[in-house]
Design a protein that fits this description.
This protein is α+β, with helices and mostly antiparallel strands. 33% of the residues lie in helices and 19% in strands. It has helices spanning 3-13, 16-21, 26-35, 45-57, 143-154, 169-178, 184-187, 192-199; strands spanning 110-115, 118-124, 129-135, 160-165, 204-207, 212-214, 217-226.
Length: 227
């Protein structure tokens, strides 16, 4: 590939939004590499290392290729090419003990900011519970869409959704309902996060710890939504 093509490819890979959205599956990665005229048999060790480092940063599996310019020290899996093409490993997790099926999705942190300071950040804790922060106020951006994109990113690695509310829409809703006699355990299921978690298949709400405050005036609530 030419120097210009390689520079454009690296620039594309280095964009977190692009790499998470465009390169989330093996066929998309293959298409992207082809778009920039990548010839796997002609990439040198330095080019492979740059692509590998960027891809691993965002948990995108790099192509396994055969080339005489790369040794075992590069960390690249050297396997034979099929008809001179590129072999790409899809983003999957280990087989689950119960089903033996591969887990699709990524464990990498997720971020999407269509506008400056307006978007969503999410991550998985050690138990696979999604923790996130979202801010779309006054932007016209649909928080529901961002939440859906985040859950699709984590895929089968997500085991639930956590909410920690010390201010904002969710806490306001809980206080509105509990001020009118709705039990706290019911009120938390009527919030925005509860509805989004339910849409994702996590409909059971459990308080992580006793809520701080009184009905209508809670100041700190932690809840986790699971299947």
């Amino acid at each position: 590939m030419t120097s210009k093509q390689f520079d454009e490819l690296v620039k594309h890979l280095a964009d977190p939004g692009d790499v998470l959205q465009v390169m989330s599956a093996n066929d998309e990665l293959l298409q992207l590499l082809k778009t920039y005229g990548v010839d796997a048999t002609k990439l040198n060790a330095n080019e492979l290392k740059i692509i590998q480092d960027i891809a691993l940063k965002y948990e995108v599996r790099t192509p396994s290729i055969t080339t005489t310019t790369v040794g075992d020290s590069s960390g690249i899996d050297l396997t034979k090419l099929a008809d001179g093409g590129i072999s790409v490993t899809p983003i999957v997790g280990p087989p689950t003990p119960a089903s033996g099926k591969l887990i699709t999705g990524s464990t990498a942190d997720f971020s999407r900011f269509p506008l400056e300071n307006k978007g969503i950040l999410g991550n998985l804790d050690k138990d696979g519970i999604v923790e996130f922060k979202i801010n779309t106020e006054g932007s016209g951006i649909r928080g529901t869409d961002l939440f859906k994109q985040m859950m699709e990113h984590f895929g089968g690695h997500a085991k639930g959704v956590k909410g920690k509310w010390v201010s904002g829409t969710n806490l306001d809703k809980v206080n509105e309902l509990t001020a009118n006699g709705v039990p706290l355990e019911v009120a938390i299921t009527k919030t925005w996060t509860a509805n989004r978690a339910r849409d994702a298949g996590f409909g059971n709400a459990t308080l992580v710890k006793p809520a701080t405050g009184l009905p209508g005036a809670y100041t700190d609530i932690e809840v986790v939504f699971t299947k």
